[in-house]
Amino acid sequence: MSDHLTRLTSVRFQPLLPPWLLYVLAGLCLVVTLLALWRRSGGAGWRGLCFALLLLWLAGPMLAHATWADLPETLLLVVDRSGSMAVGTRAAMARHAVAQVEAEAARMPGLAVRVVPVLSGTTTPAGGEQAGAGGTRLMGAIERAAADIPPGDGGSRIAGIIAVTDGQVHDVPALPAPGRKPVFPPGNPDVPLHVLITAAGEQTDRRLRVLQAPPFGIVGQNVTLRVEVEDLGPHPAGDTTATLTLKRDGDTPIQRDVPVGQPQDITVPVTRPGPMLLALQASTLPGEVSTLNNQAIVQINGVRDRLRVLLVSGAPNQGERVWRRLLKADPSVDLVHFTILRPPDKDDTTPLNELALIAFPVRELFQEKIGQFDLIILDGFENRGILPMSYLRNIADFVRAGGGLLLTAGPEFIGPGTLQDTPLGDILPARVPEEGGLVEQRYQPMPTALGSRHPVTEGLPQTPPPAGTAAGNAGWGPWYRALVADPSQLSAGAQVLMTGPQQSPLLVLNRVDQGRVALLLSDQIWLWSRGEGGGGPQAELLRRLAHWLMKEPELEEEQLTAGISDGRLTATRRSVSAAAAMQVTVIAPDGSRHPLDLAAARPGPGEPVAAGVASAGIDATAPGIWEVTDGHNRAFAAARPADPLEIADLRATATALGPFAAATGGSTHWLGGDPGRPDVPELQLVGPHQRAYGAGLQAVGGRDWIGLRQHGAHVVTGEQADRLLAGWAVLPLALLLLLLAWRREGRG
């Protein structure tokens, strides 16, 4: 491998005639000469020599003088810097090994070293290859680096490839047929691949694999996970069981012993709607290289099977069609709807079988099966002895036990003996007086300050602008009838989200023990569906009301959420109160606690300030489940590895690259256990088809050695050609030979 100039002299031909014509003449001369020899003609030999001399001259023999320069050959030094190389002392050992190889290669003339890093992330300008979600793509990085090195006139310019890695490579090509050597990199035959593994020998690792995990689960039912604990590499015999720990959303961990190498089914109950994080961890295997892949995180979203809603309309009205269309359009809702066509006190001669298709099953609905419903809607329901007091008390108990009640009220809600005077009155959030309780006038429903922040009414389409501000949005369409509740008689904790005439409460929500109640003090929301005065968001408002009553997590007033992205946890607290700043506690997977001060969220350009929203971030690189709590609410987030394939097997091993390296004529070497002094083999230059590696006794000093192939690549720098036979010399000589042939023939 030198860069000096080399001179070579050779003979080449530059015919004076087309080759085909030259071949024809040669054939004719041969026939004539052979015929003369067969007839024993005198001078046949001299005549043949003349023909040969003329044909040689016509072939144009040239004496060529060429000079070329040897091209430097390249050593590709591939350095694995993917995620698995961060385990233990591998990265430090790799740095020292690379430094030794570069120092030794620098002493070899004509050898250039090109370092090719293989990173986890985006492709680097130096030729690094993305590991990312696809694992370590080391062979792809070699191919790209080799494509930038054009071959020389003598063949490949790549003397060899040395890969410093832990052996966890996920794009190793398939081996060729037995007896055949792979051409790798493509277009560069006979390039040996040598692998330097950053360990003293094959390592042991235990990993936990989630074979099957459903993304969704029905609330109140169980889901089944299938997992498997595997032990990889050499490990002591008899390790047949492992302890599997399951922790759900920060609850008390559950442990069980499972056999190693056998899939196991784990049953987990789904207790609430929304995301549920499960952390699974396998016990440590003695001597394993890392416990990073002993754990796994599974997220299961709890969903309700079907929401069971009971809708009772006190009389046929314009609004019941709105309710029915809304609830029937939701595939997750089972609707039971009854309309009271005739109250019990009305006596006429109409046969009962002509009043309704089925009888109103009062006892079955309000005593035997009331606990099977999630929400009860009383739409314009007038109490005229239809439901006995015991059944109304059952509805109140149903709410206190965790159910939802939505009541839309009209004129039937005021006066003596109405629902306000029954056991239901104890759970209703507002009371309407008999005198002056009904107002019939045109008015526009308006959100309150609380309503502008409450998830039920925040951001509804066509929301009216605040009073005193100029805006192009005219707001919601008008209603013409409302009940006026006494603001001083609101229940404790009642939330007024909308106001009606004279700013009286129009939509009031409240929590009652474990359940929830919503009271709409007007029976004219159906006007929005008809487009009265531009209409309004009737469908969206009723949908949100129903889902808030059924405790959907995204409609909670006080929300605490957490998420992890790019190694950073973001905690966000949403509150209906105007105060945004507060402090939460972040609990890491190892149990350490970190206080975090939340600040008011900054809106984007042109966006309104979101009152009651505060957030902050903190570094969260440790894998596992992180918990955020404000003392009342808790939120969880999972920190997962950026590249699951990269940590699936954390052993340093020769099983992946070893066979392929041997097929190329290369070798595999272990760097030992001292990261500061790795056992790097000696570099030697070998010729084509020579052995490219050797054991310690075959090298000076007893070190193992690896060979770099000398291909002799070069580039021609100059060329000169001179004619060997000049015409002025050939013609006299040819005449002399013909003269000798004539004289010999004359004597015969």
Task: Describe the structure concisely.
This protein has 748 residues and is α/β, with parallel strands linked by helices.
Explain what the structure shows.
With 748 residues, the protein is of the alpha/beta class. The protein folds into 5 domains: 5-69 and 718-747, no CATH class; 72-201 and 652-712, Rossmann fold, CATH 3.40.50; 205-302, Immunoglobulins (Immunoglobulin-like), CATH 2.60.40; 307-464 and 476-549, Class I glutamine amidotransferase (GATase) domain (Rossmann fold, 3-Layer(aba) Sandwich); 559-639, Immunoglobulin-like. It is built from 12 helices and 37 strands. An 8-stranded mixed sheet has the order 17-16-18-19-25-24-23-21. Helix 1 (19-38) runs antiparallel to helix 2, helix 2 (44-58) packs antiparallel against helix 12 and helix 6 runs parallel beside helix 7. The model is unreliable at 121-133 and 468-472 (pLDDT under 50).
